[in-house]
Design goal:
This protein has a four-stranded antiparallel sheet with strand order 2-3-1-4. Helices cover about 35% and strands about 20% of the residues. It is elongated. It is built from five helices and four strands; from the N terminus they run H-H-H-E-H-E-E-H-E. The longest helix has 13 residues. The protein has about 170 residues and is α+β, with helices and mostly antiparallel strands.
């Protein structure tokens, strides 16, 4: 298990701001946090080097890309052995419909978030890419009606200041 990193209130504030908008300039970050831009740059660089900040992602609207139907696929693989798991995960990750793959405990081995064009596309994906595989014993499909992003990820017991609390 990776070691956690000790973060002070300035680090937490920076992380909250960057999670809300990763394109915020160092000058704007520094002004919002109340530190010099050079200090801000040093802090963010340290957070990257320590592995707290893993990268930057561009979020896209699946519906505007012709993938307006999203679903969660619960997948049971049998037998659940390493020589089958690796190739299965790599194949699923390579599918353009796959958004996220989770390896789970419990009755289901994987939870796969997919985005497809429509119900026929979802049926094709499940039948041709999942249940057609020898190692897949069962697939359950749950449609996603709506989803919401939650607050910034912070260490346990840490609370970032709310926008109204900022100076």
């Amino acid at each position: 298990m990776a070691e956690s990193v000790v973060l002070d209130p300035v680090d937490l504030h920076l992380l909250r701001l960057l999670q809300n908008d990763a394109r915020t300039t160092y000058r704007d970050l520094a002004a919002q946090v109340g530190v010099a831009p050079s200090t801000c740059l040093d802090r963010v660089t340290r957070l990257r080097r320590s592995g707290v900040i893993l990268g930057h992602q561009l979020r896209l609207d699946p519906a505007k890309l012709g993938r307006g139907l999203e679903a969660l696929l619960s997948v049971q693989v049998r037998p659940h052995r390493r020589e089958l798991v690796g190739p299965f995960v790599e194949r699923i990750r390579a599918l353009p419909e796959s958004r996220t793959v989770f390896h789970l405990t419990g009755p289901d081995d994987y939870l796969v978030h997919v985005a497809v064009a429509d119900m026929a596309d979802l049926q094709r994906l499940v039948l041709d890419e999942f249940t057609a595989r020898r190692e897949v014993a069962r697939v359950e499909t749950r449609l996603i009606f709506q989803q919401w992003d939650c607050g910034p990820l912070l260490p346990p017991g840490q609370v970032a200041p709310k926008p109204a609390e900022q100076a």
